Amino acid sequence: MRDGVDEILKQWQRERPDVDTGPMGVIGRLSRVTRLIENRLRESFAQQGLQPHEFDILATLRRAGAPYQLTAGQLMQASMVTSGAITNRIDRLVSKGWVERETDPDNRRSVNIRLSDSGREKVDAALAQHLATEASLLTSLSTTEQIQLTRLLRTLSIDLGDRPLGES
């Protein structure tokens, strides 16, 4: 079986047999797989009445544990977006009633973003479908292959500088 990257590599091999296109095969496939996965996840979230970035914020707050709140700065770090983008996203979630802004009683300059009860219900319902969608995206890989791929991608991710928040 062949994919779109095979055709690109074949063309380069024909035009430039002197270059090693092996890395292009890996990176090209990672890029294409990422786009295909993002499209499927976007469709799945839309069925739940969510945008992917909305799920990201709601899920980040839910994972934080009770009382399901973080500062806007913490959400910005977790989402890896600009302060303007996080403010706009929070504004939309507030307007939908899924999160609430609260001034930190210990630091009046800091604002906490708290998951509302309806936001928690929304993200909990969406999580089940999200996990089912992710599982369906991996059905062509055996459990062993999924474990191998996870290990390989973690190694690459760490080598490229990905670390848990708070670690350098």
Strand content: 5-15%
Please describe the biggest sheet, giving its number of strands, its sense, and whether it closes into a barrel: 3 strands, antiparallel
- SS-based structural class? mainly alpha
Spatially, the strands of the biggest sheet line up as 1-3-2
Question: Whole-Å distance between the termini?
Answer: 42 Å
Could you spell the SSE succession in H and E letters?
Answer: HHHEHHEEHH
The number of helical segments is 7
State Rg.
20 Å
Q: Could you say which overall geometry the principal axes of the C-alpha atoms support?
A: elongated
* Unreliable runs: none
> Helix fraction?
55-70%
Mean pLDDT: 92
List keywords for this structure.
168 residues, mainly alpha, three-stranded antiparallel sheet, 3 strands
Describe this structure in words.
With 168 residues, the protein is mainly alpha-helical. It has helices at residues 4-15, 22-47, 52-63, 72-79, 83-95, 117-137, 143-159; strands at residues 69-71, 99-104, 107-115. Strands 1-3-2 form a 3-stranded antiparallel beta sheet. Helix 2 packs across helix 6 and helix 4 (72-79) packs across helix 5 (83-95).
Q: What topology emerges from the helices and strands here?
A:
Blueprint: H1 4-15, H2 22-47, H3 52-63, E1 69-71, H4 72-79, H5 83-95, E2 99-104, E3 107-115, H6 117-137, H7 143-159
Antiparallel strand pairs: 1-3, 2-3
